[in-house]
Amino acid sequence: MFERMKEKKKEVRVVRRIVFIIALVLLIIIGIAGFQTYNYISNALEPVDPDSEEIITVEVPIGSSLDGIAALLEENGVITDARIYKYYVKFKNESEFQAGTYDLVQSMTLDEITESLKTGKVYHEPLYTINVPEGLTVEEIAENVIAKKTDYTAEEFLEKINDPAYIEELMIKFPDLLTDEILGENIRYALEGYLYPATYPVYEENPPLTVLIEQMLDTTQANVMQYQPILEEMEQSPHWLLTFSSLLEEEATAQSDRQTIASVFYNRLEIDMPLQTDPTVLYAMGEHKDRLFNTDYEFEHPYSTYKNKGLPPGPIANAGLSSIDAVLDPAETEYFYFLADKEGKNHFAKTYEQHLANRDKYIGN
């Protein structure tokens, strides 16, 4: 009996040791699993790649649910785990995501991604910005903006916007904005006047030229197509609007001048009188001059509004919103003439005699 008791105690100790070892192993496993789970969740809450600059285009269809959006983001590699993102969004009590096309990057935080999906805009710190001033031609944009801010040369930029196959692609992508008018026989550059003046964020060190060009066209479309109902009522096209606006952009120095100059041009167009605006001659000649001479006004070219009636074949520069607004909301005047004095101030006249008097008074011989 004594021996059996000793044997039983021994068995109990062995069982206890086994239980202890099993419990210890389970605790270790649980600890490792918990640590791994913690690490996984922590990583899933961080940007996929903090150093990434590659743009990933994600299309969120209309009516997408949170589950669908999260799955779409994971599928495109913008987030690590759809379930964790879904729980994160619910924890933050976010909702009302918008459908649309988003250019996202893996370095965006979950909050940045969420804010983008809520507002319809991409919220991400750009690497740098590109500023396109008002009143520039595509050649000036190529030389003074693209060549100075990116690794592309002016020639590479001009070659791209002169590529017939690429222009055809753009016309398919922007059918309401880019019509057959940009392919007119006398058009110098199809996209002249269509590269909107604005400051553009850049998220890649050296993005494709197509990204930069289409970013400008997107902005032009957003600003011009809002006036589509007015243009339809006037029986005019976006090309007409941008062409007319470009003349004001090159001639005017103030908003009030734009509206008054617009009235001068409208008055001249109404009686089939040539617009006779100097910037069209300079554009036709492809030169930069401080002053035009009588021989310059005789230069034969489709863009010269001294040699041709009506608007030129297309825009001569990129116009800002103030010039576009002035075309659609001109002043009501009886002016047919204007000139700028040495300080750049414009002086208007109803008759040619008054115009000559202004010339003698403000410019001289």
UniProtKB/TrEMBL annotation:
Catalysed reaction, written as an equation: a peptidoglycan chain = a peptidoglycan chain with N-acetyl-1,6-anhydromuramyl-[peptide] at the reducing end + a peptidoglycan chain with N-acetylglucosamine at the non-reducing end
Location relative to the cell: Cell membrane
Gene Ontology MF: a single term: lytic endotransglycosylase activity
Pfam families assigned to the protein according to its UniProt record, in alphabetical order: YceG
One of the protein's GO biological processes: cell wall organization
Membrane topology, as annotated: Single-pass membrane protein
EC number: 4.2.2.29
Principal location listed in the UniProt entry: membrane
Entries under InterPro entries matching the protein: MLTG-like
Site (Important for catalytic activity) residue list: 251
GO cellular component: plasma membrane
Domain of life: Bacteria
Keywords assigned by UniProt, alphabetized: Cell membrane, Cell wall biogenesis/degradation, Lyase, Membrane, Transmembrane, Transmembrane helix
Catalytic EC class: lyase
Segments passing through the bilayer: 14-35
Described purpose of this protein according to its UniProt entry: Functions as a peptidoglycan terminase that cleaves nascent peptidoglycan strands endolytically to terminate their elongation.
PANTHER family: ENDOLYTIC MUREIN TRANSGLYCOSYLASE (PTHR30518)
Family under the similarity heading: Belongs to the transglycosylase MltG family.
HAMAP family: MltG
Protein name: Endolytic murein transglycosylase
Organism in which the protein naturally occurs: Planococcus halocryophilus
